[in-house]
Design brief:
Largest sheet: 4 strands, antiparallel
Oligomer: single chain
Distance between the termini: 8 Å
Number of strands: 4
Order of helices and strands: EHEEHE
Shape: globular
Strand content: over 45%
């Protein structure tokens, strides 16, 4: 298992159910093949550097997890098709392996 970090943001006007659904879907995508979620940090509302989909703010969430590299493609696909997630970035953390 390799260590990864996922940072994504959703529309601040999104409902709690939509945010919980995104969080649950990420949890399922990571843990279905033996991955583990180590930490989830809610960074709250932050101002965006530039406007994205007519939004000037985003509600950021940081997820630290361990997973097989093959699972990253599935997680990326899940985040791309979810309309609640506006942008995301998955980074490998070699310092936490």
């Amino acid at each position: 298992m390799k260590a990864y970090e996922l940072l994504y943001f959703v529309d601040p006007a999104a409902t709690e159910e939509a945010r919980a659904g995104v969080s649950k879907r990420i949890d399922v995508a990571v843990t279905e093949n033996g991955g583990t979620i180590d930490n989830v940090e809610d960074w709250g509302k932050r101002k965006l550097a530039f406007e994205i989909d007519k939004l000037t703010e985003g509600d950021y969430i940081l997820v630290d997890f361990h997973a097989d590299p093959a699972q990253i493609a599935e997680l990326d696909r899940v985040l791309r098709i979810n309309d609640t997630v506006k942008r995301h970035m998955i980074v490998r953390r070699t310092d936490r392996d």
